């Protein structure tokens, strides 16, 4: 007869035993005797946290209700261990290379050390795991209640909730003691893992013992049991035990996905993994363990159904059968097996969750609210440990509260399936991140959020039933009567089991969102780097990077590392790295390679995103180390940049060469022009000089006998002297105009007066050549504000040209004035034969006199001077073709000239 | 029989000056002002000597000289070139084309007469 006190005493003894085991394991780990601890056996057994109280108790209940379907729970992990061995190896390799601390850290690290993803995964893990923890508490409580009911006389268990509270508290204590004893850079907990392994043995032995008792003690041997099972199969209603393909595939997939993505499974599988050798052994040993765990499930269920009174909860057959047959010792062992299953799950799950919560939620917040120096001067280790411990307590409190709220109403298996489906949403982002370089942070976030929303809508919220957020009408009709939005028949897909339905839609929409958004978004540099490291982890050889950071920060980094990893580990790392660089002491050069190693080492304690942020704070600037890493890693990119820079340079040189060539051509042209000009000047000066000299010599030698001829000779000398003077004047004028030394005297004057002055100045020539000038005085009443003396000079030139070069019998010059678009326009058109088209282009050039009429007196500089003057005044002078006679157009902008108000 | 000289020059005052000094020395002076018709004028006038300006309207003195040297009749005609462009390249070009004498404006009257008399002794 078991008394309550005995039961509690045995429990306490058992827990104390676990404490001892854990303590001893931690001690020997500290003494570096890790051979046993790192054995494949312990690793394999630690994987048994997969088998929780749900599996221990619930599998039998599952079998009693649904026949062989319970096998799917074992089938999924078995297929993963055998079939997806290569993927597990990749996962483990990545986990070790990147010092991954949790599944949230894995995703955060893979997708550019994004803390957003870390937070999403953490929150979803908490939501998905909390019911599961509640489930474990419930199973322990139920187990107690079974003993209480059967042995009510000697029992005094007034409050089952109190039992749960005590269990939760004890688990919190154990977890805090052994889960947060140290902050190992590898985030491994030898004590916990060893205790879990012991528990794995206990639950296996317990289940096997019950099984053996049932088969040989009650059932009368395997043959009879087989017959009983066969009978039971026929006896049960057809649809209950029928194996449907869709459900089998769905549930097997679900348990396989959960095996990879459950936070606690990831923790034992990847984080606590001692090496790939252990994984290799586990790949066959763990399926074997699962086989043994499942071996007696069906017999126990069938015998329980056959021997126990109707209405007995099949979930507790493992306990109630031994009790029914008064096998107290066996019942005790069975109880301990269930207790082991529950506690190991809660311990590992709370460690995994606490790591996630502290690294992805608490530490980032702490880092952001603390000043920058805190990373160096503050004791991060203490903060981190406190955060871990608080998180563990928080996780267990949440589980306890959920247990109290839900009231233990739902069948155990149902809760397990809901949790599985929730955490499985991480699978696309995780598998995609390891296999597909194109997977992006935005895609992962989109997939995760989509998956969780669909999961919550189709499975999680409806699971609360009427009492929850969704009314019966909502479930039956859909929101606002929209049928295709019915939570359990989305898009009109009805007739599916709710779990399979939820798995189907959540995974499909999740994957679509993940792939779609990944394809549409371009990953950032850090994402691409991490993506490459994750996807190619198996053929990744460590590269040495060039480039050194400013060395001044090495000491700060050491101080920070000591506070985070512990003094010994940090000094060890720094010394090793310094030695590898060929340096004495503890301060290596802060090369990108060293920074990357340090970051990975720190990741082991605080997670990738936080480690990255901590180093970035010291290095100054959030991306300083990464930028350099990228610069070196992405050498191709660099080459492209250099090549484009070279191309740019080449273009520059080509353009410079072209400019030089153009300048050279211009200079050559100028030189030729200068020679031509000098030659012209020489000619124009020497010609009158020749006449003057010749006739002065004639005069000196006695002169002409004829008085008239003598007088003519003298006047030639006089005329040629004047011609010389004019030429010199023109040359000076042109030189002044061309070289910008001209002084303009702007003044306001009516245009007609300027023209009057020009006509007056050329009066003698006009009379001599008999030129008639036609003007329209009314149109000339325009006020202009410019250097009117210079403008008059232009007019004089044009009038004189018409007088001198006009070849009509009756010379006539028409001066037309107009204003077009704010520009004053004067056309000087004579009635001569005009200027030949081929010569029009050059008449404004210097010495471009066209006629051989040297007596006209000009040196061919007049129009050149006119052009310079108009240029100075802001206007222009052009030849106007098609006017029959020679025609020149003078234009001058009027814009700034007021029409009124001048004096 | 007086010696005949043809002056091809477009500047009227210079033509007047040369005509005066050569007439005074006993030459018969003919004048022509257009470059284009100059060669024909020489062939028509058949002068004993030629005074040729370089810068002429229509055609340059160099071109005229080249044509004259190509003609049998005028191959040995004594030619005195006068130019206002006194650069060395001008003289070189004239000598290459077979000029007899080359003078730069402004010239000395006496020198022109002397040179012509040298070219036609007797």
Describe this structure in words.
The complex is a heterodimer of chains A (903) and B (122). By secondary structure, chain A is mainly alpha-helical. In chain A, strands 2-4-5-7-6 form a five-stranded mixed sheet, with helices on one face. In chain A, strands 1-3 form a two-stranded antiparallel sheet. In chain A, helix 1 (4-30) crosses helix 9 (190-218), helix 2 (40-46) packs across helix 14 and helix 31 packs antiparallel against helix 32 (707-738). The longest helix of chain A has 66 residues, at 635-700. Chain B is of the alpha/beta class. Chain B contains five helices and five strands, in the order βαβαβαβαβα. Chain A binds chain B through residues 679, 682-695, 697-698, 701, 704, 709, 713, 716, 719-720, 852, 854-855, and chain B through 10-14, 16-18, 20-21, 33-34, 55, 57, 84-87, 104-110.
